[in-house]
Hints:
This protein has about 170 residues and is mainly beta. It has one domain (about 5-135). About 5% of the residues lie in helices and about 40% in strands. It has one helix spanning about 115-125; strands at about 5, 5-10, 20-30, 30-35, 35-40, 45-55, 60-75, 80, 85-95, 105, 110. The strands form 2 sheets. Strands 1, 3, 4, 5, 6, 7, 8 and 9 form an 8-stranded mixed beta sheet that branches. Strands 2-11-10 form a 3-stranded antiparallel beta sheet. The N and C termini lie far apart (about 85 Å).
Amino acid sequence: xxxxxxxxxxxxxxxxxxxxxxxxxxxxxxxxxxxxxxxxxxxxxxxxxxxxxxxxxxxxxxxxxxxxxxxxxxxxxxxxxxxxxxxxxxxxxxxxxxxxxxxxxxxxxxxxxxxxxxxxxxxxxxxxxxxxxxxxxxxxxxxxxxxxxxxxxxxxxxxxxxxxxxxxxx
Length: 170
């Protein structure tokens, strides 16, 4: 069973430059909010694999990998949705003058694993959470689920062509 960890003491690993380590941990993730809807993360505590290595100059190269599902209403048809997402995220924290190489998740030798995993999941989730890729959604006219009862409504005539209907050919 993997150990539960919200933070990882990087300094405590005592790795020399060029050395690396793989840690199998568990981290608890918070529900996601999209607009007015909340999506639960299942399971709430997910197993994660953390690969880390020490770089020259006292920095870190980090990789986080895990799979998680979100559960909530489909954004097209409002039926329950529970898609799974494979998350693979990388970070570099290299001390020095280059701000681009400073990871926001590493502070004073501690890695904020929970915040990194939460942010990585949010970035892996698409703009629309759907019950299935080919979800047809709800009918714009009557509101019926188009997955259950596919149909189309007759469209009203275009008002720009109303005068043409008055033409009579005799």
